[in-house]
């Protein structure tokens, strides 16, 4: 797919009503309802400020968590936080497309900013609908006639095919916001010039994403070497025949990843020369760290890759020309088990190759170590970046590219 999409430089937005999709999904204090981190709001404030200063009428669309989660709540606090960050009032509207919401949008003045209610309160946002169904949804049919343009700045959700990400781009001239533009320009730039060896470091607790990316990267010949850490490594160790004992096997099952053991077996059968597994592991034993060879692991929790594995992986990282890392190597929040994550992030920062971190916990670790400036690119969206880099098409990006062909 060509990387050509419209940006905010391609249109005169003064006096125009703009639907702006952002991702300000934030951790919430379960007791007070206060937002615990405003990182994503700080990020998207760049786009919101520019639209405000250019005299656009800015209608912000966003989500918070998903139904059934404890942090599934309104966007009232987000509006307050955004107002402070952007430096102008961001009016909270407690609905999405009611007559009240539509009247507010219709009566906006240049430079005004409003934030509509949590998109995931709306039943058509989350299900997997066809593009035609998204285009004809109540959400799109209600709001699109009130707008001149659609701006998608929500790179972190670009790998999702959801109504607010796809539907508006089908019916309005659409463009990438500054966060989306910067992410795509950086990632495509690195990908288009990716030199071998290309090394992936895949770990963390969300094993399904990493294994899917691994499979795609291997099948499309985009990876020369994959270093496994975290729960991903445990699944592959079990698939290779290593007995990680009942406690660690049950943890895989409890997380819903038992079926991925068979997926891992197939990948090992076809790509065993490219998939590198730990040789030792850091175990929580008597409230301390003890390292064991993988075939000697006791029936106790695995909390990190082992010291020998760290050294092995560092050598691979130093020899790489293109590096992509996603997910911590272990329970890095505990000091004794942070070594794997910290040493690998440090190696990434020292590597002479292009280095990319896919956001999330690994990006937080790099920031805590003051090494974020030493990484070539730290993405704001782990799922989106790992999918893009492994060669998968991002639905929201495709929607922007298709829109650019319709609206030159």
Overall description:
The protein folds into two domains: 8-179 and 393-406, Phosphoglycerate kinase, N-terminal domain (Rossmann fold, 3-Layer(aba) Sandwich), CATH 3.40.50.1260; 196-352, Phosphoglycerate kinase, N-terminal domain (Rossmann fold), CATH 3.40.50.1260. The mean pLDDT is 94. Helix 1 crosses helix 2 (76-86) and helix 8 packs parallel to helix 11. The strands form three sheets. The protein has a six-stranded parallel sheet, with helices on both faces. A six-stranded parallel sheet has the order 9-8-7-13-14-15, sandwiched between helices. The chain is elongated, with a radius of gyration of 22 Å. It is built from 16 helices and 15 strands. It has 408 residues and is α/β, with parallel strands linked by helices. The longest helix has 15 residues, at 39-53. It has helices at residues 39-53, 76-86, 99-106, 131-135, 138-143, 163-171, 178-192, 207-219, 230-239, 245-254, 259-271, 307-318, 339-350, 360-368, 382-389, 395-406, and strands spanning 17-21, 57-61, 90-92, 113-115, 149-152, 174-176, 198-202, 225-228, 275-276, 280-285, 288-293, 302-305, 322-326, 354-357, 377-378.
């Amino acid at each position: 797919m060509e990387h050509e999409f419209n940006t905010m430089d391609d249109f005169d937005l003064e006096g125009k009503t703009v639907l702006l999709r952002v991702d300000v999904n934030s951790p919430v204090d379960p007791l007070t309802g206060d937002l615990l981190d405003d990182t994503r709001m700080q990020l998207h404030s760049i786009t919101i400020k520019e639209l405000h200063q250019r005299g656009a009428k800015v209608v912000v669309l966003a989500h918070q968590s998903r139904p059934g989660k404890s942090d599934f709540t309104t966007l009232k606090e987000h509006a307050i936080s955004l107002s402070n960050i952007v430096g102008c009032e961001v009016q909270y509207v407690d609905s999405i497309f009611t007559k009240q919401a539509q009247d507010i949008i219709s009566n906006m003045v240049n430079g005004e900013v409003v934030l509509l209610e949590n998109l995931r309160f709306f039943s058509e946002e989350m299900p997997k609908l066809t593009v035609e169904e998204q285009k004809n949804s109540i959400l799109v049919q209600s709001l699109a006639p009130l707008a001149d343009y659609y701006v998608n700045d929500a790179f972190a959700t670009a790998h999702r095919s959801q109504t607010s990400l796809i539907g508006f781009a089908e019916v309005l001239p659409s463009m990438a916001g500054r966060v989306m533009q910067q992410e795509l320009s950086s990632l495509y730039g690195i990908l288009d010039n990716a030199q071998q060896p290309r090394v992936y470091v895949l770990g963390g607790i969300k094993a399904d994403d990493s294994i899917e990316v691994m499979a795609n990267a291997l099948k499309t010949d985009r990876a020369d070497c994959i270093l496994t850490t975290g729960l991903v490594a445990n699944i592959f160790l079990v698939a290779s025949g290593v007995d990680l004992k009942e406690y660690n096997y049950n943890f895989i099952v409890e997380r819903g990843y038992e079926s991925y053991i068979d997926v891992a077996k197939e990948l090992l059968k076809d790509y065993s020369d490219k998939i590198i597994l730990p040789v030792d592991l850091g175990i929580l034993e008597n409230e301390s760290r003890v390292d064991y060879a993988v075939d000697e692991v006791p029936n106790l929790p695995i909390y990190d890759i082992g010291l020998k594995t760290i050294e092995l992986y560092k050598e691979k990282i130093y020899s790489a020309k293109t590096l992509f890392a996603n997910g911590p190597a272990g329970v890095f929040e505990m000091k004794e088990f942070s070594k794997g994550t910290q040493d690998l992030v440090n190696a990434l920062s020292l590597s002479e190759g292009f280095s990319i971190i896919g956001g999330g916990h690994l990006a937080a670790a790099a920031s805590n170590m003051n090494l974020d400036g030493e990484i070539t690119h730290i993405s704001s969206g782990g799922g989106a970046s790992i999918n893009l880099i492994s060669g998968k098409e991002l639905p929201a990006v495709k929607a922007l590219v298709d829109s650019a062909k319709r609206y030159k």
